[in-house]
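Memo to structure team: turn this sequence into structure tokens by end of day. - J.P.
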Amino acid sequence: MPELLLELLSEEIPARMQPAAAADLKRLVTEKLGAAGLAFTDARAFATPRRLALVVEGLPATQPDTREEKRGPRVGAPEAAVQGFLKSAGLASLDACEVRDTGKGQFYFVTVETKGRATADVLAEFIPGVIREFPWPKSMRWGSGVLSWIRPLHRILCLFDRKVVAFSVSRGDSAEALRAGNVTRGHRFLAPAEFTVADFADYRDKLRARYVMLDGAERGETIAADAARLAAGAGLVVKTDPALIAEVAGLVEWPVALIAEIDRAFIDLPPEVLTASMRAHQRYLALTDSSGKLAPRFIVVANMLTDDGGKEIVAGNERVLRARLSDAKFFWVQDRKTTLESRVPKLGEMVFHAKLGSLAQKVERVAALAAELARYISGADTDRVRSAATLCKADLTTGMVGEFPELQGVIGRYYALAEARRRRSPTPFATTTRPRGQATAARPLR
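Reply from structure team:
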């Protein structure tokens, strides 16, 4: 049976929006098909950084014919009501109507038979509305037009039963409207030339030949497999991170995994800092050794094949990471010149909530509650608990947490342990002995 193929080619779609966008395209089109009485056997949606695509299989060539019985006005009703009924039923006179007694009076009835329209005509009627009303979380207009899309929309490919579905979408400016056709493009750099397609199988195969993997799941599997192969060659293991792999799959149409090195000057930074720099800022995959320790290597996934085997790409990404880690190392060195205890007063300058005061006030409440709860825990040292609670938010004033907000608390632990080592103490908190249950003030180690 015939199939529908729809592709919307645009500038880069943010990776985080691609899965929802593909699902929305499938939902909107299939809902319209259902409302039009067009059944289908399967519908699949795809997203790459530059395109949304949908294939709907098993569609009929035409809508099914329908029969609908309509009840008209009561016999003897005003002429205006009768004429309105005839117009709605597509009749010229009452000759085709039947008079029935419903128990509440005699009424006119007519059976209206509607011949199904060609499916291509139905598609051409509703798809432009799907495009104009597409529910992007954020969208933009470009030029002087009024058409909104996540990024500038360049081309529409729409085929039904291997023929172009003829419609256009106005951009509302002096530029020519976007007209549906059978032409698309491959990879932006590796195969930018236009080409025509006949159906979904032809479309998918020609895209692959032009360095575009249409299926996001396949791109993710390719990234994971290639990264694992490169890591194994270096005697390492890829740190498990399926969410990051899925995000990277949304950044590339033809994934090319490459292995690079972390400058040894930064390897003494906490592993969470290294991982945060690589993951959040650059979307690199971290590698570990057999013991699970972070290794001085990482995987970068490019969207490009190069003549030098990716050497320039690797070198460029290593330079970028060095710059990121230079900032992190600066904060690592500078932050540790100040104790956590001396940072606590600065929390008074940070608003926790307009009606609940500053972070310093919050810390006071947390410390009091923690100390009170410690009284009911066997072996708990209330002084140490109160001291830890007093310092628990102190790292919010550090440069490192300012650069990596997701590391708050984690960085505080590293700074506290560093202070303890400098003071030759197993812990940065005081361990005074007092009678059980007696509350005392917090006493950070001097």
